Amino acid sequence: MPTETNQVFDLFASEIPGFVAASLVDLDSGMTLAVKSTRTDFDLAVASAYNSELVKQKLKIMKALGLQTTLEDIILTLGDQIHFIKILSPTMFIYLAAERSSANIAIVRTVVTKNCHRVG
User: Fold this and answer.
1) Contact 27, 93 (CB under 8 A)
2) Single pTM value for the model
């Protein structure tokens, strides 16, 4: 894992209340390129692979609708977690999960967006 990515993921963990995990993901393969997790029971490899399929499907939907724009991010709110996907390039994205009881969607989005240029 690149040192810069480690530092950014450490920053996510310290600045995002309820941080659970983050990964840098290759969109085509769904493989994790870098990971940080505070929970051993949170399988980032599985989450990353399935989220790559989610991103691919959203891109297909945009194409089918003839939308002439780019996908920036996806926010998913679950009963107890926030999942955030930030698109970095046509081939990479950051996936982040945080506890909904202590995290704030605006803070998650701001912290990730502000620092995503340092990843990869």
Assistant:
1) yes
2) 0.94
